[in-house]
Amino acid sequence: MKGLLLAESGSSKTEWRLCVAGEIVQSLRSPGFNPNIQSHDAMRTVFREVIQTIGYEKIDRICFYGAGLGELSQRRVMSNILKELIHDAEIQIEHDMLAAVRSTLKPEGIVCILGTGSNSALYKDDAIVENLGGHGYLFGDEGSGQDIGKRMIKAMLQGDLPEEVRLYFEQKEDAEIDEIKIAVMKAEKPNVKLATFARLTADLLHIKKVEKIIFESFVAFLDTTVCRYQDYQNIPADFVGSIAYYFRPILEKACKKRKVQLGGIQKDPVENLIQYHLKG
Q1: What residue ranges of the chain are covered by domains with CATH 3.30.420.40?
Q2: Bridging pattern class, strands 108-114 and 90-95
Q3: CA atoms of 48 and 30, how far apart (whole Å)
Q4: CATH 3.30.420.40 holds for 3-100
Q5: pLDDT (tens digit, 9 = 90+) per residue, 8-18?
Q6: Crossing angle for the helix pair 145-157 and 190-201, to the nearest 10 degrees
Q7: What does the longest C-alpha to C-alpha distance in the chain come to?
Q8: HEC states along 175-231?
Q9: What fold characterizes domain 107-267?
Q10: What tens digit of pLDDT does each residue of 174-183 get?
């Protein structure tokens, strides 16, 4: 019996679930995908490995939600790569913002992504009414893992943080701060590399200047997204992503400062996405 292969992908990782007859029968994690910063060949290689591991013969439908798929041309790229690998499956490609919307399991509201990147949407009846944020790591993504990582590295380079912060980063990376900066610039996925520093930052929240950097990153996100929606103070905002989940106390402070109603926080939307698809 064949089933639905559902993928929820960010720039850092992808969660895959094979569902047959209403049950999850196989789970897999792979590297993330983003057609804006990856070659088609690199994505094709990972897709092939995943589908071979799961088994072509088990799949009759693929629903892939991913970062960097806001434009039709980008979704076509992903669809064509998958069609090359599995010809007889129905393939649906959607933006990760729609995955966040559907994972709330609510009819309307505001939903925000705070992971490697960031984004937000005002939605109603399974449709995005307005979308603010995103724009990638060069032009936006405030409040994301890469934004926090970038702010931390910049603060260390400028000598704005205590020495213990720099020493901690240098120990964990086995490199001096200038070498860390160069490693980011040379990385295949600079945004993903920067986001790894947010994980290190989580160990330093006892330092007030570190907490302030994260708080200011979250406030910048709210100012460029949620606070620009009409009547936002009266609409609960749900959050999806590891950054929102692990830095919840600081996010709560930022929301309180900007009078944002903080709703639910999901670390990973994939399980709720499965509920959404199976009930449909």
Answers
A1: 3-100, 107-267
A2: unpaired
A3: 11
A4: yes
A5: 988 778 999 99
A6: 80
A7: 60
A8: CCHHHHHHHHHHCCCHHHHHHHHHHHHHHHCCCHHHHHHHHHHHHHHHHHCHHHCCC
A9: Nucleotidyltransferase; domain 5 (3.30.420)
A10: 999 999 999 9
